[in-house]
Amino acid sequence: MRRSFWAMALCLSLLFSLLTGCAGGGSPDAPADLNGTTDKLNIVTTVFPAYDWTKNLLGSRADRAELTMLLDSGVDLHSYQPTADDMIRISTCDVFVYVGGESDRWVADALKEKVNPDMTVLSLLELLGEDAKEEELVEGMEGEEEEEDGPAYDEHVWLSLKNAQVLCQKITQALCEKDPEGKADYEAALADYEARLAQLDEAYADMTAKAARSTVLFGDRFPFRYLTDDYGLTYYGAFAGCSAETEASFETVAFLAGKVDELALPYVLTLEGTDHRLAQTIIDTSTAKSAQILTLDSMQSVTADKVKAGADYIGLMEQNLDVFTQALN
């Protein structure tokens, strides 16, 4: 039933695109122009990190590509549902980059209706292979019912600078295959961007090696497992990174408050876009009640407006480095 709905929506939208295209309407990034009326390499990404990586990897050939980020309205990966126009963009693009976890189940329907048979599809989780991590429940964390169709993987692969380097290599390989004439340009852009990623990775490693503490505590979902594993940090959190839960039990609050006291943690961490009530409740339940709240950016809900204002992956990871530095000292 769901596939039939998307198939009908796709057909109607394609028809509309053809009609508006014949009438001379549309804009450079409208569906009509994604239907074969441009020679540009058409690339569609779901999440902001993949969009920003690709933007940098296009380098000097950026004007030869049409790059689209679907999740640009502030809706995060876990609650996003594509529109009919989104389905068209996916079905007609040359390269499609998505995360590939539980939140992307809708992608299977989109790819069944693809118009471009030569599309290159890149799943970030698949590209990582054995380095993709299953979600885990640490002590004190709220659990969820287990899925019957296999393990759930932590989708927040971009929150590892080491992963970013691997995934940028894979994206560059796809660009080179789609546009062989630009191979040297793409590889040059990759070398420059990899150097920036490696430098920031070294800054994180140096910071954690010198930090006074090695444990962080989240009064929120915890999507930073890849990062904490990279640098040998211990963590506690209220929920797993992909959890749909919003209300923590008394037992969870009490446990986390106890850890704040036991480890003398001066900060409780939260994510962008949350109201921080849980973090404050944990602090209020602790004995000292003196911890402060710090906010990290998981890049799950970066808007088009923020991108226009200059938001970029490395800049946001640098901001997170500053927050971790404060939290661990």
Distance between the termini: 54 Å
* SSE succession: HEHEHEHEHHHEHEHEHEHH
Poorly predicted regions are 1-37
Helix content, binned percent: 40-55%
Globally, the shape reads globular
Strand content: 5-15%
Structural class: alpha/beta
Based on the model shown, name its key terms.
329 residues, alpha/beta, four-stranded parallel beta sheet, two-stranded parallel ribbon, 12 helices, 44% helix, disordered N terminus
In short:
This protein has 329 residues and is of the alpha/beta class.
Structure notes:
The chain has 329 residues and is α/β, with parallel strands linked by helices. Helix content is 44%, strand content 13%. It is built from twelve helices and eight strands. The strands form three sheets. The protein has a four-stranded parallel beta sheet with strand order 2-1-3-4, with helices on both faces. The protein has a two-stranded parallel ribbon with strand order 5-6. Strand 7, helix 10 and strand 8 form a beta-alpha-beta unit. The chain is globular and about 65 Å long. The N terminus is likely disordered.
Secondary structure: elements and pairs:
Layout: H1 2-22, E1 41-45, H2 48-58, E2 65-69, H3 84-92, E3 95-98, H4 107-112, E4 120-123, H5 124-128, H6 161-178, H7 183-210, E5 215-222, H8 225-230, E6 234-240, H9 250-262, E7 267-271, H10 277-285, E8 292-296, H11 304-308, H12 313-327
Parallel strand pairs: 1-2, 1-3, 3-4, 5-6, 7-8
Helix pairs in contact: 1-3, 2-6, 2-7, 6-7, 7-12, 9-10
